[in-house]
Design brief:
This protein is an alpha+beta fold and 427 residues long. 42% of the residues lie in helices and 28% in strands. It has 9 helices and 18 strands. Helix 1 packs across helix 2, helix 2 crosses helix 5 and helix 6 packs across helix 9. Its EC number is 3.4.24.-.
């Protein structure tokens, strides 16, 4: 149960922050956002504020911001449909009444002849009381009215396509940007909670019943040498332990200016990776010391976010190269099932480990969304950049076909990765 709750919370936070980035920058750009959703599937909660419906949906995976655009706007009017219209003094439509569940007065009953609510923003209809055919323009602030609910009709000026290249770029980039910001905030939080790992070869903690405890090593002891090799830092110490093998080690240590010589034999620790591979390493059972006042927390957060971003970029590069050199395997990828299993294992190690894992996942989500794959933020950014460079949008039909191919590609990959995860963890 803890694993399920951890998975829901972690992914809920990651998706909410990502979509919140899109929402904030879209609204700053003047783009109307009819819905901000966390989760997928049926609504379990909704609240409307400032023309945006905020919803929580049943399935705790995914989420979205629905921005007003020519592609997303649906036209509920069909030729021959009888509706009622509320118009202003300029004979512009302010409300399209789709049923009788309203309290509007001074309305016109019409029969729709034709309508264009994506570009021209007009409705041509025949007034029933005098059979005159009139073309009505949609007011800048106009609404559909159905079941006593008002849904604003997005004016052209509030749609995604109407905004400058820069505003559209930032709106799309804001989702991954907020994931990087979340990682930064979490790394800074971790610094305040526990400090940063020290590079010094000093025992910060001693494992219970470990070789270090049995040999008499204590918290605060500095390891000066191992089998005669002078130790420079923590990483060098771990390298020396691995290189010496599972034989007895002689440690020269210092504590409060007191020198001691200890002998111990490392033990083998086995870790099973998500793909099933078992990795073995030698340990003596000590943890790094922590520093809390030597490095500014903000700098530490930036450093960790940058380091993690660099590492993930390298892993993505290796993944793409593996496709071309024939070494690619779906074991190199994790879908929702695989990530759930890893989250379950991480959650069992405590809140600190889970926060660190969430920060890493946030960086990963930001980078994955910036990949130039159609249907992802990175693919949509490419279309916007194309328009900025060539001063004209890509052919709409070509763009739609590329987007469809991107969606199909992602769906196929998701199905294959999920099936591979199921085989790995459950079959």
């Amino acid at each position: 149960m803890t694993g399920i709750l951890a998975f829901i919370v972690v992914f809920g936070v990651l998706v909410t922050v990502h979509e919140l980035g899109h929402l904030i920058f879209a609204k700053r750009a003047g783009i109307m956002c009819p819905e901000f959703a966390i989760g997928m599937g049926p609504k379990i909660f909704s609240y409307k504020y400032n023309d945006t419906l905020y919803t929580i949906r049943l399935l705790p995976v995914g989420g979205y911001v629905r921005m007003a655009s020519n592609d997303m706007e649906t036209n509920p009017l069909n030729a021959g449909m009888r509706i009622q219209l509320k118009v202003n003094n300029e004979n512009e439509i302010t409300h399209i009444l789709l049923d009788d569940k309203h309290n509007f007065t001074n309305i016109e009953e019409v029969e729709v002849v034709s309508s264009d609510l994506s570009k021209e923003m007009v409705v041509t209809a025949t007034r029933l009381h005098d059979q005159e055919e009139i073309t009505y323009h949609i007011a800048d602030e106009a609404y559909y009215v159905e079941n006593s609910d008002l849904e604003r009709i997005a004016p052209q000026s509030a749609r995604f396509e109407s905004k400058s290249v820069w505003k559209r770029f930032m709106t799309l980039f804001a989702g991954p940007l907020f994931n990087f910001l979340l990682a930064f905030v979490l790394f800074v939080l971790l610094f305040y909670i526990q400090g940063r790992p020290s590079d010094e070869p000093v025992a910060g903690l001693i494992g219970e019943d470990s070789p270090a405890e049995e040999a008499g090593l204590e918290v605060g002891d500095r390891i000066d040498s191992i089998n005669g090799t002078e130790i420079r830092d923590w990483d060098h110490m771990t390298e020396v332990i691995q290189s010496e093998g599972d034989t007895e080690l002689t440690l020269e240590t210092t504590r409060d200016s007191e020198n001691r010589t200890l002998e111990l034999t490392p033990e083998v620790m086995s870790n099973e990776l998500p793909d099933g591979e078992v990795v073995e390493r030698l340990i003596i059972g000590i943890g790094q010391d922590r520093e809390t006042g030597t490095v500014a927390p903000i700098w530490w957060g930036l450093e960790q976010t940058y380091a993690m971003s660099t590492l993930i970029f390298e892993l993505v590069g290796q993944l793409f190269f593996s496709i071309f050199d024939g070494t690619f395997s779906f074991d190199m990828l994790n879908g929702p099932v695989g990530i759930y299993k890893v989250t379950e294992e991480v959650a069992a190690q405590g809140l600190i480990t889970l926060i660190n894992f969430t920060a890493v996942l946030s960086v990963n989500l930001g980078i994955m969304n910036l990949l130039p794959i159609p249907a992802l933020d990175g693919g949509r950014i490419l279309f916007v950049l194309y328009e900025g460079i060539f001063r004209k949008p890509l052919n709409r039909k070509v763009e739609i076909n590329i987007q469809l191919l991107g969606v199909l590609f992602l769906l196929v990959i998701m199905v294959l990765v999920t099936w591979n995860d199921i085989k790995t963890f459950f079959l």
